[in-house]
Specification:
The chain has helices at about 1-5, 10-35, 40-60, 85-90, 110-115, 125-140, 170, 190-195, 205-210, 235-250, and strands at about 65, 75-80, 95-100, 120, 145-150, 180-185, 220-225. It is an alpha/beta fold. The protein has a single domain, classed as Glycerol-3-phosphate (1)-acyltransferase, CATH 3.40.1130. Strands 1-7-6-2-5-3-4 form a seven-stranded mixed beta sheet, sandwiched between helices. The two termini are about 35 Å apart.
Length: about 250
């Protein structure tokens, strides 16, 4: 909570701003879905999410730079550093995210993720993983862009963790476009690995309050399309992992 004492007006102002934005986007959601969430299609939810995340990024005074064509449909596999990744990627294009089951229980953000049509996966129960795979395939067939973080957890960005392969099954059928993405951050008043990245045993509220104390966040995202992916998901995972490492080794945007 030291950040609150260092920059009290910035932190409190942004917390109040965030609460106002949550209220606004909830009203917008209700108006768009006609108070019938079950009839709000996956593409409509993705469009609403893009609107919402663009508003949220303004709270952080965030800027986003991209390299390569931004995908609009198919499967995007990306490295994972923080909950901020969702704000950044969703602001660029309407998308459906795949997240771990625990996100459902996060205060406010879990509710937000459910409204956005997030597909939740329980990796500890194989039958549930199969259900999520089917949901991914269904979203792809509807023309959505599905974003998957196959590392299974976030890191400090020093490396790209090995990929879990179970949710890559729809991509092996080669019926939809397949993309790799690399997301990176810069801040001029702190340590990205400890203050933007959300990993280890960090807890959400203290991390968010500290992040609100930062002047601005600069995000960069690189995209590339995988033209010939393997039909074997383990080999495909290795291909995608190598592609993201290649993007990471490229000169900074």
């Amino acid at each position: 909570m030291k950040a609150l004492f260092r920059h009290p007006f910035r932190v409190v102002g942004r917390l109040l701003w965030m609460n106002a934005e949550f209220l606004l986007i909830t009203v917008v959601f209700a108006l768009r879905c006609g108070f019938r969430p079950s009839r709000f299609t996956i593409m409509e939810r993705a469009s609403w999410l893009q609107y919402a995340t663009r508003r949220f990024l303004r709270i952080f005074a965030a800027t986003v730079h991209t390299s390569g064509p931004v995908p609009s449909n198919g499967l995007l596999v990306c490295n994972h550093l923080s909950y901020v990744d969702i704000l950044v990627l969703a602001s660029l294009t309407p998308a459906v995210f795949v997240a771990k089951r625990e996100v459902k229980s996060w205060p406010v953000f879990g509710w937000f993720a459910k409204l956005a049509g997030t597909l939740f996966v329980d990796r500890e129960r194989r039958t549930r993983v199969g259900q999520t795979t089917s949901e991914i395939q269904s979203a792809l067939d509807q023309g959505a862009l599905v974003i998957l973080f196959p590392e299974g957890t976030s890191s400090n960005g020093e490396t790209v963790l090995p990929f879990k392969t179970s949710l890559l099954e729809p991509a092996t059928r080669q019926t939809h476009a397949l993309f790799a993405g690399l997301i990176q951050y810069q801040i001029d008043d702190g340590d990205v690995g400890e203050e933007v990245c959300y990993w280890k045993d960090m807890t959400l509220v203290p991390h968010l309050i500290n992040l609100f104390s930062k002047r601005t966040i600069n995000a960069s995202v690189r995209f590339t399309q995988l033209r010939e992916g393997s039909t074997d998901r383990k080999e495909l995972a290795r291909q995608l992992h190598s592609e993201i490492l290649r993007l990471k080794a490229a000169p900074a945007i």
